[in-house]
Fold this protein.
Amino acid sequence: MGLGFGASVVASIGLTALYALGGQPQLEGILLGVSLGGIALGLILWGEELMPSVPFVQERHDLPSTGKERGQAEESFEAGAELVERRSFVGKMLGAAVAALGLVALFPIRSLGTRPGPSLYRTPWSAGARLVTVDDEPVLADGLQVNGVLTVFPEGHTDSADAQTLLIRFDAAEAPDLPGPLEWTPEGFIAFSKVCTHAGCPVGLYQPQSRELFCPCHQSVFAVMEGAKPTAGPATRPLPQLPLAIDEEGYVVAQGDYLEPVGPGFWSRGRD
Amino acid sequence: MIERTARWVDDRLGASSFTREALNKVFPDHWSFMFGEIALYSFVVLLLTGTFLTFFFEPSVTEVTYDGAYAPLRGVHMSDAYRSVLDLSFEVRAGLVMRQIHHWAALVFIASIVAHLCRIFFTGAFRRPRELNWMIGVTLLVLALFNGFTGYSLPDDLLSGTGLRIAYSIALSIPLVGTWMTFLIFGGEFPADQIIGRLFVVHILLIPALLVGLIGAHLAMLWRQKHTQFREPGRTETNVVGSKLWPTYAAKSMGFFFAVFAVLALLGGLVQINPVWLYGPFEPQQVSSPAQPDWYLGWVDGALRVFPPWELRAFGFELPNPFFPAVLMPGITFALLYAWPFLEARYSKDHAVHHLLDRPRDHPVRTALGAATLAFYAAMFFAASIDLLAKWMRVSVHTMLFIFQVLVIVSPIVAGWVTYRLMKALQASGADRFGHMPLSALRSPQETSEGS
């Protein structure tokens, strides 16, 4: 055990030197481990070997109080309670005052957050809003290759979590097969909300061969050619589709906001 | 000097008789009693290292451009919170080791609470008169889980931001009050600016204060009721057999504290944990793949993955899918945990006072139910890694998902049945230890009537 304490002293000195020299995480861990472990070893051996190890026996006392003690406690309480009850009107007023104050004390909770209002039903997308990349670059209709995929935002809202949208481009020849109204998918462009309808993660993975979107959090799969309908995993609803258009300058724009709330479900989602 | 101080204090407080009683207090010994100690000591380590971390962490989402010591992220826009964690890790002397010890201590803290809970459960230590302390213990577990989550959400890295995003969606799924409640907690629609600052206050003040208070109550009740002990010659319901607090138990216990701290220091120094600089700062449109939470939330994440794509919609209202696996299931879990001592007393009609512990075989039904429950949560825990398991085993993620949907149902049944038969066989064979049981006892388990 002397050895343990000794090793601890040596390691502590080492730690001091190391710290003075600027420190190094791995060595700090080892030296601190030895400093602490030395004391541990010493104490445990000391306790095991040099201290009394013959088992001691101690009696347990009954936990419940005796009937007499309970009676006395009850009496003391009753004596006071009687005085209170005699002034029952004052007592009731005290109750009312405390209840009113308690209610008032709840009000500051309201200050904690904004009213949900329409925020869960709306995103910053609006008619004519240009699609921009996260670096605020507007997307030109001939700027994205066929089978390419891009995360886009409405211009001026690149930090909006609920506006994040996946823009995918297909061969225009296939365009008649694209899901959704024909006028929503100009020149083979199609866009879906990137917020998973299950638990809100960004649906980050796209497999061009199978044309599936894949959520890395809980493995929901969405089939792009079926209107981003969930085909596997826990998601229950398709990713909402963003109506697109091409403006006269050749930029891809939105025709308006999503027609339904994006992202995970909530109690009153169906009541816009 | 010590004597003079002691006399000075006693003159003012009259603490001698309590001190004598305390020093002579007897504590029984068993390896399984040490899980609770590990939890207590890792909590002390959490307080020590955590206090250090608060001096450097900046709970702010103000955007800054990084130009610190970690070259790969220079020039990247990030929150001040994330920047301060990078500085803490790379520029503050001993900062990284403190941060890593803190994270390891949190993982060990919750692991030892769960092990302690299993010990209490399988030996029946929750029975009368210890039901209150069981409920405090369950509360401590809930608080520890919350504090773990709030803690690893603070650095505002990509992984923890994804976790917060999921937590937000789970809160949103609560019927009737979910929307308002979520907006009040987060301050607005995700990602609201206030959340990091709020999590910080909850993580370093509110929950730790509750933990300190409840741990105090937990220990005070243990002190008052005295520790349980296993059935052995000389040990009865009316005595405690073991070593005295002073000096033997104190020396061993303090030694054990240093041992726990030493292991955490070695882990913190040598085994990398939560390297947030590799994940990058949180961006709402990015996500890390794979994305797994810290181990103690794996069961909830796994449940979110295996629960089928069901939700309820009626009259324009809906109960979204995450409500069932991530609100209802944990709710039932903790409700059953709180109620267990009373449920067992009621169904086994055992309302007697117990200070002697059961061996798991003494109560095969309880043991089998416990094993089945553990199998259920273990299946969900591993289900939180179906993407990784599928990759390693070269099967599709959805095959793996199906396997786990089956396992979540089947493994509790198998584990419960096997455990029940084993406990019965062990009881009948009379073997002292599991390893001493003859194999024949398994082949012909004697069908005795329920002895439990």
